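Sanity check

After download, print the first record. It should look like this:
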Amino acid sequence: MSKARHVSETLATQFLRQHKVAFTEHPYDYVDHGGTSESARQIGVDEHMVIKTLVMEDETTRPLVVLQHGDREVSTKNLARQIDVKKVAPCKPEVAQRHSGYLVGGTSPFGTRKAMPVYVEASVLELPRILINGGKRGYLVGIDPQELVRLLKAVPVSAALE
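Expected structure tokens:
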């Protein structure tokens, strides 16, 4: 595991504490475009348990959050079909930042600036524990994946490209 470092409070950790969620902290050295493979490598975990937070939008530019395994991509066609919209596409980084309040690379689904619907890959909920962004670059938190449903009303979908 990573060496102990103090991480200052983020909107995400404030949200988790406010909702009495037990979490572990996992800081790592952020690498531009390193993604979940880099954080998993540094922390020493399987990339499948590192969950990425993706801010996307439908054809009316309504934002939504997709939580996906780090080692999987999202099929936007499958997702659109399952959530009954015409199309889904990733937001441009500056648009994602405006919706979430977080820098891209540090986006957490917790404590976002705007309330957005959250969709989670169904198999994420089967894991015993997940690591997900804690609200800043180079910082993951470990939680029980069921908290995604409890706190965010995350709707399970099957949108991973194998």
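If your output differs, re-run the checksum step. Summary of this record's structure: DSSP finds five helices and ten strands in the chain.
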